Amino acid sequence: MALSKIIAEGIDLTDTFAFTGTVTGAGEITASTTAPSEGGAATTNVVQGLAKAWMSLDATGTIAVRDSFNISSVTDAAVGSQEPSVTNVFSSLDSMAPTAGSWNNLSSAGKYGNAAGVSSSSKYWVGSFWSTTSYDVNYNLSTVHGDLA
Fold first, then answer.
1. Mean of all residue pLDDT scores within the chain
2. Where are the domains of the chain?
């Protein structure tokens, strides 16, 4: 990267200065990076606060993943139950905190229940039901927080 030539207060810097080094640490987020809270009263660890996996899928018929992050595949385990596999595994079962949400269409939003749980450090499950009946829904969403291995 070349610096511009400048003339300031009678000093003539007409040489071209070139940067040949390496900048390290600029803009990097590390495991200990913190950020102030919105109100400024506390700080939060940026890395721990990020979702480590998430997905949006249609579970009616053949499983169709609309979008995802850190999800390698999804198995249709049973009616109303899907099991996503993560690309980058979690450090342990205890470090995974999956959540799920679902609805069948916009007119029935909120009528379906959902559940999520941990199968292994590389898999979790999400389930959808209406009353006490398992149900495949066309909007199945999940997020997993935790520590990656």
1. 81
2. 53-146
